[in-house]
Amino acid sequence: MLQRPTSYETEGVIKSEAASTMASWLAQIQKSSDLGSDVWTLLALVVGVALLHKVFFGRKKLRLPPGPRGWPVLGNLPILGTMPHLSITELSKKYGPLMSIRLGSASAVVISSPEMAKVFFRTQDHIFANRPFTINGQVFMYNFQDVSFSPYNEHWRFLRKVIDMEIFSNKRLRHLKDFRGEEILASIERMLEEGRGGNPVDMKKSMAQLSVEHICRICFNNNYSQWKSKSCHSNGVPKTLASMLDEWIAISGAFFVGEYIPYLRKLDLGGFEAQLLRLRSDFEQFLNPIIEEHRKNEGRSDKDFLDVLLSLQRENQDGFPNDRVKALINNVLIAGTQTTSDQTTWALTELMRHPDIKQKVVDELDLVVGRERLVEESDIGNLVYLKAVVKETLRMYPSVPLGVPHEAMEDTQVAGHDIPKKTRVLFNAYGIGRDPKLWEDPTTFNPERFINSPIDVKGHHFELLSFGAGRRQCPGMDMGLLLVQVTVAQILHTCHLSVPAGVVVDVEEGIGITLPKANPLMVLISPRLEPQFYIQKGIKVNFS
Ligand code: HEM
């Protein structure tokens, strides 16, 4: 009798057994006069061909990681809902640290433990450094001409080097130090002005504006002031860069059905692809005049990121098309704004909910910096408690709660499970950050847990991979971290913050590809230092 394969190791033997058994069946059918009727012959042939097809072309039996059963066609898409990081965290409690899910026709695994993260992003990082196909990468990044959505290939290696050198090198970070300081102080000046007379100020909005201004400085430095309040018109509606970035985050948080069930792509269910295309053209309206202006002034010495891209384009005419310039600018704008502003907003949110912790930060600032000057970036190294507050924020509110998806470039095995080529990899940063097996009382905001702890966020401690690890680790890590730390320090040092009477500061999470705070963060804000220290730094503060 024909045996079904029990494991893929014995598959070759079984295939030849199956072939010879089928041959003998067919021979018997031909010989046998009892079974000579057409019906029996046809039936035997159909069964035989089906069996042979299954043995030769059927998928070998894989030992996939455990996971929930999916629906036909849709797989597990329907149970993910609008907050996939929450549903995936719940599911992983049941199915463990390495879970299989199916997103339409795409297979995925979810990593929910530091041990698994170490295998994927260190031991087998060379296999998992790819990105899967995404409609976002294809549409918004002009066919994957950026860094974040690009597959792992020569193109990615080249561009990653460009951005590492031109934006994120230590030299560049130092060079941009004054800009960062100026932007943060300008933002404080605006908040103090807005908050005069006990007017509540929305810190979430202010932090979003600050992050956009900071990234605009990096990208369009020289004529920056000309561009910062520039708006474009989409269908007659004026849009600022900040509102376009918000729109991108919201659209990108949606599940693009066509990405997972390709034959439905034409239907564009939910209309997300059309929205993305429209948004790309809004970004172009914003970018094109800036690019033209930069082209006219190519000789200037103090080059910004766009200048660098345009000079690369001049050197490699065909190898560096306009679309690549736009994709890279889009990439830096989207990767560097909401991430930092979300982190700063969550840190301030938790500090407003915990006045005792806020007071400890302020006490440390007074001790290390004093009240006779403003915070400098060089102070950060000595602000141990402040750094613990930022780490605790990254633990509880990872900017990218399910990571940026990776993809297996070849078949492999992890922890005794098969991971076939093209499997998507989601990193459950949110679930790991709130896992009671790893963190005591994980839903309590408690920076003390990082005092005297060796754990940092730089990719060596797999329980806190806020910026990822391995080849695809966030290149903006040092800049993003510094910006969050300096902003929180400068605000708490220069301003009194309090919650308006009757307001409860909530921690409701919003929808999007990142983890935004859903509601505004309204605070009362007033100057904390003597007037001369603001004046020295050129901040206009009205003390009346
Ligand atoms: C607190 C702030 C930030 C956080 C928490 C953060 C987090 C992350 C994470 C988790 C990834 C995915 C890593 C992976 O695939 O394994 C990533 C990728 C990336 N980030 Fe950040 N990021 C931050 C700030 C920035 C800034 C300021 C920039 C640029 C100005 C930036 C640019 C990028 C880019 C280009 C990638 C894609 C890298 C690649 O695919 O090779 N990020 N970031």
TrEMBL record:
Its cofactor is heme. Heme binds at residue 474. It comes from the Eukaryota. The keyword Metal-binding applies. Keywords: Heme, Iron, Metal-binding, Monooxygenase, Oxidoreductase. One of its GO terms (molecular function) is iron ion binding. One of its GO terms (biological process) is secondary metabolite biosynthetic process. InterPro entries: Cyt_P450 (IPR001128), Cyt_P450_CS (IPR017972), Cyt_P450_E_grp-I (IPR002401), Cyt_P450_sf (IPR036396). PROSITE patterns: CYTOCHROME_P450 (PS00086). Belongs to the cytochrome P450 family. This is Cytochrome P450. It comes from Marchantia polymorpha. The lineage of its organism: Eukaryota, Viridiplantae, Streptophyta, Embryophyta, Marchantiophyta.
